[in-house]
Batch of 4 targets.
Target 1
Amino acid sequence: MKKTRKAVFTLIAIAIIASMPMISASAIYEESAQRLFELGLFRGTGEGFDLGRAPTRAEAVTMLVRLLGLEKDADGGNYSHPFTDVPDWASPNVALAYEMGYTLGVSATLFDPHDLCSAQMYVTFILRALGYTDDDAVGATLWGEAIEFGKSVGVIDDILLTGQFLRGNMAAVSYLALSTAPTGGESDTLLERLVADGAVDGDVAAQTLAQFRLFGEVGRIGSEFEKLTSFAMTRTVSSSMSQFGHTITTNSIMDFAVLDDGTIAINMGTHANDEKEVMEVYFVGDFVYMNENGNKYKVPLDLLPAFDVYALPGLSAISEITALVLYMGGYITKGTQDGLTVYTFEFSQDANGIDAGDSLSAPDADFDAQENTTMRSFELRFFVGEDGGLVKYGMYSDMQAAADVVSMSMAMEYEVTATGSEVYFELPDDLDTYLDYDDTMDLDVFQLGNPQTIAL
């Protein structure tokens, strides 16, 4: 179940990204690069950070050695490698990485330094640098399962795997690695180890370390929540869009409950101005039953292979959401409200690489492609009870679009209403009357994981 739950991260990430229309990779990862630069662990090129360009293998190993604070060791050490194709400028770093076991080359004598570095390659370098070996792999080699292993450790996610692996992606993976614990238990995070070793100034790293600790707290809360096999939640969404003095408001509520045996019940209603839609969905055994405004259908689950039932309420692997916010430049604060501990992740002007005041191209929007969208604010909030358990979390955004002609705002909150044996619901007694799916029915109605219908 945990593996299935983790897949939900993609949905919640889509919801976040959808609130930031068509941001370039260089903008998304600018903050990761800048923070690495301030720590002395990243350098640019003659083109600045050059985050929109794919790195070569030689550049990736150089980035790795610099990230580990070993560049001076490489330059001054007596390291060697067997490769005949490595340029002089990269040779010291490749030699150190080879002797440390971070890279093995593509053959006994070739490193292929000019080949482009893939996500699999760089994540493998990172995992080895964190102390993982083939002995930790489920299969034969760490290389063979680097991506899945990297996800489990927390150094990469599905967003970073989208499209070509660029220098920006490499900077984000590197920054996540700093917040990750190496094997051996000598420190909580790689950055703490670098500070202890004198590779990074402690005063310079203090703010980043404080942020990592708070992100770690939320990650642990999320990990505990992911262990639940029976829970119930209520999702409420309030949104509005105003244009030329006319405002459209939409409010929706959805109750979601899952039992230990995998049976799921969802009840949701949407109110858009004077229109109302009601839908009930039940996952029972091998079928999905849907009652949409009195139209009752059922469809076999195996006809929906891409559908993840845990995506329905926008549930998320919270530890993975925090990673997304972390490398995209969000900041986290910790406070209290109504007796609850509140963690707030905020994307705001002057606080992150996705500057909330920046104009962002939005070619897929309903207005002219040449117009712009401005993100005024975007926040994630997590509310935690005295027992350390998750009580509620929410996403809040405000945008201006089309030369400030259109304004949009949204508040989406999920409240945990029951867990364990407290979760209870009754299934309808007429499920046997629901119409069987046939080729004339439109399966689009069953795409409940679509963020347009559920998560946004």
Target 2
Amino acid sequence: MSSKDDLLKGKKILIVDDEPDILDTLEEVLSPCKVVKAGTFEDAKRQLETQPFDMAVLDIMGVSGYELLEIAVAKKVTAVMFTAHALSPEDTMKSFRGGAAYYVPKVKMDELPQILANILEEKTKGQSTWKSFVAWADPYYSVKFGPNWEKAKKELQEALK
């Protein structure tokens, strides 16, 4: 078992997405964790309000992800935004400003266990999770979004100083 699995082992994670195949894949990818799945906003809201979670992985579209982010932040649940359709520097910044710990494009789903383990490690050390986000996302975002990403990246870096 890798140290990544050790960090995630037994962590209770809420995964929220309106696509059942995505939920199934995430459950498989996050096998070291205790995963609770929610396919609707209502179900996710109920889960967040009735039980404790170490982390939440929230889709943005289809399940009112930003509204769920507010609830997760209020409950002190570390939230990661997870999206295919809302992938943009603007939504990345909205996630950052809303209190999310990270922002993951669905095309990077296979990297989620390592990302979540890194987030847990950084939070334990009292470090910002967004510094590693910038390092991780910069090559992908630079190619995909160009100047729009450069502006958002600068704002992120200023906020993290």
Target 3
Amino acid sequence: MAIRIVSAVTFAVKDMNRSVEFYAKLGFDNPFRAGDDSFATMQSDEAYVNLVLTADYRENWWGRAILRVDSADEQYRRVVEAGFEADEPRDAPWGERFFHMRDPDGHELSFAELL
């Protein structure tokens, strides 16, 4: 089992429409957008930028790095066996199984497999 690539970065945004338009102009398509506009995924080939609507992003949260793995469940077991805390793996409507955790400095990491 290996971490394959950094497949996505998630950014906190204040204005979803403005951000989607910005990344579209950079060449990203918009393959997924939540109905309530709280989340969007922009894609260019195998590179993804996720956008999360977060009004207080400057104070509390910058975003997240997403690491592609073969199995989110196996990676989760590895994380827990190493003594780290993490959210339970779950399936997402955009076609991934994933979980989140934080590194020692508080940066959020997500480990995700394609379903």
Target 4
Amino acid sequence: MSTSDELLTQALKILIDAGVEMSGYEFSLAGGATQATVWKGTSPRDTSADVALRLTPKPAQLITRIASLVDGVSDVTCPRTLAVEQMDDGDRRWTVHLCTWIGTGAPQRPDMRLLGQHLARLHLAMGRSSIDVTDRRLTFERNPAPSPDQELPAWYVARNVWRDRIFAWLAVQTEHAVAQPIHGDLHWGNIVATNTGFGFIDFDKSMFAPPVFDLAKLISTGLFSVGEGRARFQARKTTALLEGYESLRALSAVDLVALEGLAVVLNEETARLGNVYDDDGYRSNAAAVADWWITRRRRAPHDPLGIRSSRQSASPAEVSSEQVPLWPDEDPIEQR
């Protein structure tokens, strides 16, 4: 397998051979996740913008289609694709994706309400797109059941509280939770600070799903702080995020149920990735957050994240006298 420097050299040659002007750019490694590697390219010419050179195993045809979707977004800052090519390295094929560099790194003290507004603008813009991504629907790989002679992990227990019911329930709520193109991998590593607030990067996992999935992933991966094996939910930040989002795009009672269920399923996904890549950090974080969910489910079964309570306090006139139950077989929540 080639080193990152060798891959960069090969990728630049592919781009130059395709007629892309790359002279004068200096590249530095900016990130390498489980699937993609990214370099930042800086030009000595003031008139030339910085670029991002990405290597991803996703097929070039798919990256081109996603690029067409993202290039149509003008309401918020997203990368603009400059070139897409293919590169073979031994028995592995990479897609070389050259796009504009946006942002100044991860936001340090983010304005959560503003982030919610930017995400709502992203969803509204992607929802207007004519690019077809209906073949990329929301799915999850199942974790195998632990052996019967060991204690069930907390994330596995939490999954069984929610998982097998959330998809069946959403299936009969399609008129309320309409699917559309969304980001699909919205964690803090894919949000960058910009001069106008926030930008969004790495759309490789864009899919056709209810927009609330992006909110659920952001909450499940970024709004739980874990320390000494315990998780603490950042309720105020979550409330501000949702308030900002709803100032531009309303969330229904169905959306809130989906958000809560998907957040639990996504925590299980964190555990699965920890197993796949043998990452103890992922596994321990997933276990701590699952413990929080299980405890919270017992204490507040109809409002585990406190979303409904905060919405009632903020605008009581807009809350109906009866809330949709968290699950279909539970009694409605009476307002007191």
